[in-house]
Amino acid sequence: MKKLIQILTTTLLLSLLLCGCSTSHKMKDGYYTAEMSDFSHGWKEYVCILVKNDKIVSAEFNAKDPSGFIKAWDNEYMRNMSTIQSTYPNKYTREYVKQLMEGQKNTEVDIVSGATSSGNNFEKLIAAVIKQAQKGDSEVTIVPSEEE
Questions:
Q1: Which of 6, 103, 114, 136 shows the smallest number of beta carbons within 10 Å?
Q2: Which of 37, 54, 55 is nearest to 46 (CA)?
Q3: Going edge to edge, which strands form the sheet with 141-143?
Q4: What is the mean pLDDT of each run of 10 residues along the chain (148 residues)?
């Protein structure tokens, strides 16, 4: 009888632990946003994801200026950056989002040459927004900039 109680107790504890582990990392359905704390070179980067059934089904990575204008829409910036760096915001933001959609909860991306700072920020933003999704907290998360 004593052995049966031990086995049942152990089974119950293991079940509780396994249930707790599997649900603690699940993302809850909803929209989640994270943004950098400061503007860098006139732009503040942000990420917004939509989660359904513990899966990121949509994501946006971009930057905005103080007026809210989106960096990927700035054609002059695109022409200047493309000439110097062989990439531009509309190109590298899509690449980072593509990698996220393929890797889901993997917060590391292959950094695009010419967009290293944005790639590093993207990784920080994704880690923050996934934590928010796991908590089900839809408040905008502010991620400290490197300068802080």
A1: 6
A2: 37
A3: 55-64, 44-52, 30-36, 141-143
A4: 59 52 77 96 95 96 94 83 78 89 78 81 94 96 81
How far is 24 from 26, CA to CA, in rounded Å? Answer: 6
Q: Please work out, in degrees rounded to the nearest 5, the angle formed at the alpha carbon of residue 85 by the alpha carbons of 81 and 88.
A: 50
Contacts of 61 (CB under 8 A, 6+ apart): 45, 46, 47, 93, 96, 97, 100, 122, 125
Handedness of CA 68, 70, 74, 79 (dihedral sign): positive
Please classify residue 88 by burial: count the beta carbons closer than 10 Å to its beta carbon, then call 0-12 exposed, 13-18 middle and 19+ buried.
Answer: buried
> Rounded to the nearest 10 degrees, what angle do helices 89-103 and 116-135 cross at?
40
